[in-house]
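User: structure tokens for this one?
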Amino acid sequence: MDNKKLAENVLVFEKDGKEVECQILFTCNLEGFEGNNYVVFQIGDTEDISAARYTEEGDGIGELLDIETDREWDLLDDAIESFFNDLEEADDDK
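Assistant:
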């Protein structure tokens, strides 16, 4: 992935020469992977969800890095499931 910009709940990056805008769902840190920051996002107008490690270089500009281990993906899957369960519970409480 190329340069990325995090701003307000929007992540913009360039893929294959085309700008892609994503909605940030949440950011998190994972137990056992201290020092790494993760961003979970919905891609464009699709229902596709993905995640990446990120480093911020200032002014909302940073770098997205591939998630490298199955353990990271397992923990992120748990975090994503928890996120959507919490949303469902909040909707049920209304």
